[in-house]
């Protein structure tokens, strides 16, 4: 029996100007910026990357709506410009994509993040502000898992899943469907934390108009 690879998929990568990278990192590194530290959490999805430390020792920005902060507006605007390129590429039937959540993450030495996706969003992104040894792991259940009578797809990776790893390089933004399972392996740098920003987005304005006379919404993102 032979196997044939079918249906390759893709996510998108963008690179920012130095001014955007410098602004974002300077704001997150400001001593007055407020963080909520995550301590003592156990990684329930250790099978995604079994060789890493199970502890999560990351800090998440106190404000999860940084897109509303005027200081972060140039960063949010650039991210939405990237989303617009994707909207045009796929001819999505919406006026635009707006960021609904934008937050910062500071990963300390030996911290990782368990497998998860982003509910209540359509497109999400990760913006890397520092270089790091860590990789963002993406996985998608095998089409053969969907053949099972019981379709149980937990937030853990199975040996049959398709897996990709994305390196952490400063200035890079990746955008992906929010349902896509992803995780982060351990940051192994005792000198500098790993800084990233993540966002969720959703269609806004006229959505679905032109598909049929009975379809269409007008969505405003607050």
- What is the domain total for the residues? 1
- Rg estimate, integer Å: 19 Å
Overall shape:
globular
CATH level 1 class label: Mainly Beta
Any idea what the CATH architecture is? Sandwich
The portion of residues forming beta strands comes to 35-45%
**Number of DSSP E strands:** 14
Helix content: 10-25%
State the end-to-end distance: 54 Å
Q: Which regions have little confidence, pLDDT < 50, spanning 5+ residues?
A: 40-55
Biggest pleated-sheet summary:
8 strands, antiparallel
For this structure, the CATH topology is Jelly Rolls
What do the pLDDT scores average to?
Answer: 85
- Main structural class: mainly beta
H/E element order: EHEEEEHEEEEEEEEE
CATH superfamily: q2cbj1_9rhob like domain
Number of helices: 2
Structural overview:
This protein is mainly β. The chain has one domain: q2cbj1_9rhob like domain (Jelly Rolls, Sandwich). 14% of the residues lie in helices and 37% in strands. The protein contains 2 helices and 14 strands. Strands 1, 2, 5, 6, 8, 11, 13 and 14 form an 8-stranded antiparallel sheet that branches. The protein has a 4-stranded antiparallel sheet with strand order 7-12-9-10, with no helix packed on it. The chain has a two-stranded antiparallel sheet with strand order 3-4. The chain is globular and about 55 Å long. The chain starts with 11 loop residues before the first strand and ends with a strand.
């Amino acid at each position: 029996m032979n196997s044939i690879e079918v249906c390759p998929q893709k996510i998108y990568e963008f690179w920012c100007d130095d001014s955007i990278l410098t602004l974002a990192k300077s704001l997150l590194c400001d001593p007055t910026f407020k963080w909520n530290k995550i301590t003592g959490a156990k990684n329930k999805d250790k099978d995604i990357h079994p060789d890493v430390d199970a502890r999560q020792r990351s800090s998440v920005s106190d404000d999860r709506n940084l897109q509303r902060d005027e200081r972060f507006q140039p960063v949010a605007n650039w991210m939405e410009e990237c989303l617009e390129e994707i909207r045009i590429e796929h001819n999505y039937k919406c006026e635009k994509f707006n960021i609904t959540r934008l937050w910062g993450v500071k990963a300390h030495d030996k911290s990782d993040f368990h497998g998860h996706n982003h509910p209540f969003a359509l497109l999400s992104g990760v913006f890397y502000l520092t270089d790091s040894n860590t990789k963002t792991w993406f996985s998608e259940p095998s089409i053969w898992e969907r053949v099972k009578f019981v379709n149980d797809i937990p937030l853990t990776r199975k040996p049959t899943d398709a897996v990709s790893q994305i390196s952490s390089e400063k200035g890079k933004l990746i955008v992906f469907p929010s349902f896509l399972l992803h995780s982060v392996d351990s940051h192994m740098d005792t000198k500098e934390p790993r800084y990233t920003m993540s966002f969720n987005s959703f269609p806004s304005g006229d959505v679905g108009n032109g598909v049929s006379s009975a379809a269409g919404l007008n969505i405003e993102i607050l």
